[in-house]
TrEMBL record, chain A:
Species this protein is from: Jiangella aurantiaca
Regions that span the bilayer: none
Protein name (record): Extracellular solute-binding protein
Top-level taxon of origin: Bacteria
Pfam family of the protein (one): SBP_bac_1
Gene3D superfamilies referenced in this protein's UniProt entry, alphabetically: Periplasmic binding protein-like II
InterPro entries: Bact_solute-bd_prot1 (IPR050490), SBP (IPR006059)
UniProtKB/TrEMBL annotation, chain B:
Membrane topology annotation: Multi-pass membrane protein
Transmembrane segments: 35-56, 92-116, 128-148, 180-203, 239-260, 280-307
Keyword Cell membrane in annotation: yes
KW NADP (keyword) present: no
GO BP, sorted A to Z: transmembrane transport
Similarity comment: Belongs to the binding-protein-dependent transport system permease family.
Domain ABC transmembrane type-1: 93-307
Protein's UniProt name: Sugar ABC transporter permease
Compartment(s) of residence: Cell membrane
Region (Disordered), start-end ranges: 1-27
Keywords, ordered alphabetically: Cell membrane, Membrane, Transmembrane, Transmembrane helix, Transport
The species this protein was found in: Jiangella aurantiaca
Length: 496, 316
C-alpha cells in the first residue's frame, strides 16, 4: 500500500490558488451542513480518483493474499472426540475452570430452573465458575454461527437440533460428538433411543436421527391444544377427541361470539406449529416423519397433505382463527388467550409455566384431535439440546455440566419450575395444567405419537415453510401452490 | 496547495503553511508534497482496516458458495445471477424502491411545503414546532419501530381510532396485511424523515436574501411564483443533501423491517438489508448475502452520485 501511495502522489498536481478562489465564492450564510458537503464534493474530486487507485491496489493485494473463506481453522474436530476411557467424570478434579454457557432459557419457568441448577452446580463444584449468557431463541440462533466458528467459542451452547442449525454445525465439525462422555456418564441408559435420535447425526451431518450423539435436552416438548375450561364448559362441550368434535366446537364457539382459535403469526414460526397441528390430524406418522426429517419416501402433494392444507384454508375462511393473526405476535396471542380471548390455543409445552400462573385451573391441555391419521399425532420432541462446541477449551467441565442439568435431580427441578422434563416425567408429582401435560406426554411416548417439527427438513426449510404458511393462511396462495412450494424444496433436498 | 490532500477542510492550509518552510526543500509553493500523506496516514489506516478491508473481503466472499461455517467452494458470479433470478431477492429491491418513495420523495415534498408555509407566516412557538417535527430523528429507530408496531396492532390505537370514528371497514392488521404492510412500514419512514427535511429547508430559506422576495413582489409575483422562482432554486443544495440522506436511509432500511415485520407477511416487506441478514445468519448462504451487500452498496453509491450531480449542476 505504501508503494502505491508514493507512486500516485507524483501524478496529480493541484492548481495553485484554486482552493482559495473557491472559498471566497462561498456565501457566509450558507448552512454548515451544506458547506461541508459542498466543499468536499468539489475538492475531493481529484483525490477521489487517487483514493480509487489506492483502493484498487489494496483490493488486488488483499484478494491475492487472502485465502478462500472458511479455509482457516477447520481442524477443530480432530481434537474433539473423547474416547470412553479418558473421560474424567469427577468435575471437582478439573481445577479452576470458567464455564461459558449460552442458553435461551428466558421464559418464566425456564429461567427459574436453569438458575437453580447453575447455583447448585457451582455449590457442588466450587472450582467451576459458570458464566451464563442468556438470549432469546432467535438471538441465540443468529449469534451462535459466528461464536461456534470462532477460536474463543463458548463451552456449552443450546443448539437447535434441526438441520438448519445442528446439522450444519456437525457437517462443519463445530460440535463435539458426545458418545465418549455418554459412556462415561451413562447417558445411553438415562436417555431412551427415541430421545437421543433427535440430537444424533452422522459425522458428515447428512443423516439426521442416527450416528453420533451431539446434544442432550432437558425438557420434552409437544405442541398440543390448550383450551379455556370455563368457556368450553359454557358451550357445553368436552375437550375435542376427534377432528369432527373439534370442528363442531369451533362452530359452537363462533356462534357464541367467542374467538374459536387464538393465534399470532407475525413471528412466522408459529405457523409451523399451527399447520403441523392440522396436518397431524390428516397425515400418517410415517409421512410426516419423512417430510420432517428430510428423508426420501414421502410427498408433500399426497392426498392427505392436500386435505390438511385445504382444512387449514377452510378454517381460516370460516373465521375460526382470530382476526388479523398475521399481524399478531406470538406473545400477544397467548397473553390474549390467557386473558380470556379465545377458546383454543395451539401451543407448545414451554408455555405451561406462563399459562398456569396466568390462568390457574382455568386452562387445560390435550393432544391434537384424531382425524384421518387415526392417531393423536403431536408435533414435538425435545427442547433445544445442550451441546459442546468443538472449539471449547473446557470440554470435560462442559460434559459434567450437561450431565448435572439432565440428572434425576435436575428433572425434578425442571418439573418444579413448571416445565416438562424429557425423562422421568412419570416420577414427578404435579397438579393442574402440568399434570394434564404430563399425561399427554406420557401417552405420546407410549403410543409413539410424536412427529418432528416440519422445519427440521432442510437447511433452508424454516424460511420456506414459514413464508408458505403465511401465504396459505392469508389466502395469497391456494393449497396446491402451498404444497408445490414445499414439495419442490423437499424433493430437491432428498433427491426423491 | 495542500488543501485537496487534507480533508480537514478550509483551515488546513493555515496550519500546513507553518510547517512548509521547515519541511520543503525546493518545490514550488502550493505544490503537493509527499509529506502530506503522513498527516492522513492515521486516518487512512483506520479507514483501510475498518472500511476497505471488510469491503474487499465482502466482495471476495460474494464469489464463493459458503455456509459461514465450513469450507467454501468457488462460485464465480453465480451468486449475482441468483440475485436476479430468485424472486424473493429481486422482490427485496422492488420493495426498497417503494420505500424510497416513502422515505425520500414524500418527506422532501412535505418538508418543502411545510417550510414554505412556515417561512411565510410569522408563527408563534416556531422553535417548539421545529423541535417536535425533528424529534423522530433523535429517537433510536428500534424504539420508533416498537412504538409503531404497537400502533399498528390489530387492537392498537390506530384501529381503535378508526373504529371509534365509524371507519370499521378500514381497520385491519396493518403489518399482517399483504397490501398494507409495506406502506405501513414506509409511513414510519415518512414520519421520521420529514422533520429532517424540514429543518434543512428552513435553514436554507433563512439564507435567501429578503430583498429577492421584495423585488419579486414588486414585480407582481404570487406565492407560487415566488416559490418556483426564488425558493426552489435557492434550495437546490439542501434538496440534494436531504435526498441523499433519505434515499440512503430508504435503501439500507433494516431496523424497521426487522422489528416490525421480519419481512412478512410472506415476503411482502423484505428489503435488501434484511435479506443480507437473513441469508448470512439464518439461512447460512453467505455468498448470496455478500453478493447482495455488494450490489446494495453499488446502488447506494450510484444513487448518491446521481443526486449530487443534479444538485451541483444548478449551483454552478
Amino acid at each position: 500500500m505504501t508503494l502505491s501511495i508514493t507512486r500516485t502522489s507524483t501524478r496529480h498536481r493541484g492548481v495553485p490558488g484554486d482552493t482559495d478562489r473557491r472559498q471566497g465564492a462561498e456565501g457566509p450564510l450558507e448552512p454548515s451542513v451544506l458547506t461541508v458537503r459542498g466543499q468536499e464534493s468539489e475538492s475531493a474530486r481529484r483525490p477521489a480518483r487517487r483514493f480509487l487507485c489506492i483502493g484498487a491496489a489494496a483490493a488486488v493485494a488483499l484478494l491475492i493474499g487472502a485465502c478462500a473463506p472458511g479455509d482457516d481453522g477447520d481442524d477443530a474436530d480432530a481434537t474433539g472426540a473423547p474416547t470412553a476411557g479418558d473421560v474424567a467424570t469427577d468435575p471437582s478434579e478439573l481445577g479452576d475452570v470458567t464455564l461459558t454457557v449460552w442458553d435461551q432459557e428466558v421464559r418464566e419457568g425456564q429461567t427459574e430452573q436453569i438458575e437453580a441448577l447453575n447455583a447448585a452446580f457451582e455449590e457442588a463444584y466450587p472450582n467451576i465458575t459458570i458464566e451464563r449468557v442468556s438470549r432469546s431463541t432467535d438471538d441465540l440462533r443468529t449469534t451462535l454461527r459466528l461464536a461456534l466458528s470462532g477460536e474463543d467459542a463458548p463451552d456449552v451452547v443450546q443448539a437447535n437440533n434441526g438441520r438448519p442449525e445442528m446439522g450444519q454445525y456437525v457437517a462443519s465439525g463445530l460440535l463435539t460428538p458426545l458418545d465418549g462422555y455418554a459412556e462415561g456418564y451413562g447417558w445411553f441408559d438415562r436417555f431412551p433411543e427415541s430421545v437421543r435420535a433427535l440430537a444424533s447425526y452422522s459425522e458428515d451431518g447428512a443423516n439426521f436421527g442416527e450416528g453420533d450423539l451431539y446434544g442432550l435436552p432437558q425438557m420434552g416438548e409437544i405442541v398440543g391444544l390448550y383450551y379455556n375450561k370455563t368457556k368450553l364448559a359454557a358451550l357445553g362441550l368436552e375437550p375435542p377427541e376427534t377432528t369432527e368434535d373439534f370442528e363442531a366446537a369451533l362452530q359452537a364457539a363462533q356462534a357464541a361470539g367467542e374467538v374459536p382459535i387464538q393465534f399470532g403469526n407475525s413471528e412466522p414460526w408459529a405457523g409451523i406449529h399451527e399447520f403441523g397441528f392440522v396436518q397431524n390430524q390428516f397425515s400418517d406418522a410415517e409421512t410426516i416423519r419423512n417430510l420432517g426429517f428430510g428423508r426420501p419416501g414421502s410427498s408433500w402433494t399426497s392426498d392427505d397433505n392436500v386435505a390438511a392444507a385445504q382444512a387449514t384454508r377452510d378454517w381460516v375462511d370460516a373465521g375460526y382463527f382470530v382476526d388479523g393473526f398475521n399481524g399478531v405476535s406470538y406473545d400477544s396471542a397467548w397473553q390474549a388467550f390467557a386473558q380470556g380471548t379465545g377458546v383454543f390455543f395451539v401451543g407448545g409445552t414451554w408455555l405451561v409455566a406462563d399459562l398456569t400462573s396466568a390462568m390457574g385451573d382455568e386452562v387445560g391441555f390435550v393432544l391434537p384431535p384424531v382425524g384421518a391419521s387415526g392417531q393423536h399425532l403431536v408435533t414435538g420432541g425435545i427442547s433445544i439440546p445442550w451441546a459442546i462446541p468443538a472449539n471449547s477449551d473446557a470440554k470435560e467441565a462442559a460434559a459434567a455440566y450437561i450431565d448435572f442439568i439432565t440428572s434425576s435431580d435436575a428433572m425434578t427441578a425442571v418439573t418444579e419450575a413448571g416445565n416438562l422434563p424429557v425423562i422421568e416425567a412419570d416420577q414427578q408429582t404435579t397438579t393442574g395444567l402440568q399434570s394434564e401435560v404430563f399425561a399427554a406426554w406420557a401417552q405420546a411416548g407410549q403410543e409413539d405419537l410424536i412427529v418432528p417439527y416440519l422445519d427440521y427438513a432442510t437447511e433452508t426449510f424454516y424460511d420456506t415453510i414459514t413464508v408458505a404458511v403465511q401465504n396459505l393462511m392469508a389466502g395469497q396462495s391456494d393449497p396446491q401452490q402451498f404444497l408445490d412450494t414445499l414439495e419442490a424444496e423437499y424433493t430437491a433436498a432428498t433427491g426423491s | 496547495m495542500a488543501a485537496p490532500l487534507a480533508p480537514a477542510g478550509r483551515r488546513a492550509p493555515d496550519s500546513l503553511r507553518t510547517h512548509r518552510s521547515a519541511v520543503v526543500r525546493g518545490g514550488r509553493p502550493g505544490e503537493p508534497r509527499r509529506v502530506a500523506y503522513l498527516y492522513i496516514l492515521p486516518a487512512l489506516l483506520v479507514f483501510g482496516l475498518f472500511v476497505l478491508v471488510p469491503l474487499v473481503r465482502t466482495a471476495q466472499f460474494s464469489l464463493y458458495e459458503w455456509n459461514g461455517l465450513g469450507a467454501s467452494t468457488w462460485a464465480g458470479l453465480s451468486n449475482y445471477r441468483d440475485l436476479f433470478t430468485e424472486p424473493q431477492l429481486r422482490g427485496a429491491f422492488v420493495h426498497a424502491l417503494v420505500l424510497v418513495v416513502f422515505y425520500a420523495v414524500i418527506p422532501v415534498l412535505l418538508g418543502l411545503l411545510l417550510a414554505a408555509a412556515m417561512s411565510r407566516a410569522v408563527l408563534r412557538g416556531m422553535g417548539f414546532f421545529r423541535v417536535v417535527l425533528f424529534l423522530p430523528q433523535v429517537i433510536p429507530m428500534v424504539v420508533v419501530a416498537i412504538a409503531w408496531r404497537q400502533i399498528y396492532e390489530p387492537n392498537g390505537p390506530l384501529n381503535d381510532t378508526l373504529r371509534f370514528v365509524g371507519l370499521d371497514s378500514l381497520a385491519r392488521p396493518w403489518l399482517g396485511d399483504y397490501t398494507w404492510a409495506l406502506p405501513s412500514v414506509g409511513i414510519v419512514g415518512t414520519w421520521v424523515g420529514t422533520g429532517l427535511c424540514l429543518v434543512l429547508f428552513l435553514a436554507g430559506m433563512s439564507r435567501i436574501p429578503r430583498e429577492l422576495y421584495e423585488a419579486a413582489r414588486l414585480d407582481g409575483a404570487g406565492a407560487l411564483r415566488e416559490f418556483r422562482a426564488i425558493t426552489l432554486p435557492s434550495l437546490r443544495g439542501e434538496l440534494a443533501v436531504a435526498l441523499t440522506l433519505t434515499v440512503i436511509a430508504a435503501l439500507k432500511t433494516f431496523d424497521l423491517v426487522y422489528v416490525m415485520t421480519s419481512g412478512g407477511p410472506g415476503t411482502e416487506t423484505t428489503v435488501p438489508s434484511y435479506q443480507v441478514y437473513n441469508n448470512a445468519f439464518l439461512l447460512g448462504r453467505v455468498g448470496i448475502a455478500t453478493a447482495l451487500a455488494v450490489v446494495l452498496t453499488l446502488v447506494v453509491f450510484v444513487a448518491t452520485v446521481l443526486i449530487n450531480r443534479v444538485g451541483e449542476r444548478g449551483q454552478r
